[in-house]
Specification:
5 strands; alpha/beta; about 325 residues; single chain; Glutaredoxin; 2 domains; about 10% strand; rod-shaped; 14 helices
């Protein structure tokens, strides 16, 4: 049932494509797009609205597991102002610093540390009271103060910190989460997966083929391509009594593969190889090797099929 021209995929083709999209093991590649979409919220403090000025990670919460990346590494870009707090004794200083951080829009970062959750940070900073505030730049503390302060005093202290670090840091950049998400973003893969999810098997095959050519070391892309190719053949082919046993074997193998019956798909082709010769045998062998690429090379089903192929050939 070949699809003429550029007409939209049929309901049957869309159903098959949806089945393929769920069955193809993309080895976690789909999570890249999800990570990209979710990263904008990871750097926000609780209650921060998505898309607000603070969504550029002007406010963060830090504990001992994230201190190195969120404070020491980030402080090579902009000053990180650590505020030691306790949920048992909230203070107005937290709100003052949060508001000033939003106003600064990324020129410095307000990092809160709950001393009851991460006492090691307070100890490392040799803090004597809560609240205490420390300015970290270039991975080192450069200024601090203890106790509540009026907003104007805090503003002047921050201005002094910014003057002291002016020209000495690399400047505002993406947060570690945003940088990680940007690294994971993969528009070409997203486009291939989108075509597959929409039932456009021809476009999905074309885009996965381009990815395989561009990234020969990523076997998971080969797995996806071979699976999509089998699915497209299932969608495009029709039964014909005159096709002969070789085409019938190849069609049966495709059907079994897209149904998840890998062992049966491989066996159909291996059995056909045993009783055919010349060009027919070579065509069957080529198809079997392609279908074997729908699974990782070390999958037990692939290893068993390769042994069976060797026995059939020799």
């Amino acid at each position: 049932m070949s699809r003429p021209g550029n007409r939209p995929p049929s309901a049957a083709e869309q159903k098959l494509a949806a089945s393929l999209a769920g069955a193809v093991d993309l080895s976690g590649l789909k999570s890249r797009a999800e990570a990209q979409r979710g990263a904008s919220s990871q750097g926000r403090a609780p209650g921060q609205a998505e898309g607000s000025a603070a969504s550029v990670a002007t406010r963060i919460q830090v504990d001992e597991s994230t201190f190195e990346q969120e404070v020491l590494v980030r402080s090579t870009q902009v000053p990180v102002i650590i505020e030691l707090v306790s949920q048992r004794a909230p203070t107005a200083l937290t709100g003052i610093l949060a508001a000033l951080a939003d106003e600064a829009n990324g020129t410095w970062v307000h990092a809160t540390v709950d001393v009851d959750v991460a006492p090691g940070i307070a100890q490392a900073l040799q803090a004597r009271a809560v609240p205490s505030v420390f300015a970290i730049a270039g991975g080192r503390p450069i200024a601090d103060f203890e106790g509540e302060q009026p907003e104007e005093a805090v503003r002047q202290w921050l201005e002094a910190v910014l003057r002291a670090t002016e020209g000495k840091l690399s400047g505002p950049g993406p947060s570690p989460e945003d940088a990680d998400a940007e690294e994971k973003a993969d528009p070409e893969l997203d486009a291939a997966e989108e075509a597959l999810s929409e039932g456009d098997l021809a476009t999905a095959e074309q885009r996965f083929a381009a990815l395989v050519e561009a990234r020969p070391g990523e076997h998971s892309l080969v797995e996806a391509l071979r699976y999509v190719q089998a699915g497209r053949r299932v969608a495009d082919e029709t039964d014909n009594a005159d096709d002969g046993p070789v085409l019938a074997a190849k069609r049966s193998a495709d059907l079994m593969l897209v149904s998840g019956e890998y062992d049966s798909a491989f066996s159909v082709l291996t059995d056909a190889i045993k009783v055919n010769f010349g060009d027919d045998r070579q065509a069957l062998r080529t198809r079997l090797l392609e279908l074997l690429e729908t699974l990782p090379a070390d999958d037990p089903r692939v290893l068993a099929a390769r042994r069976d192929l060797a026995s059939a050939l020799y």
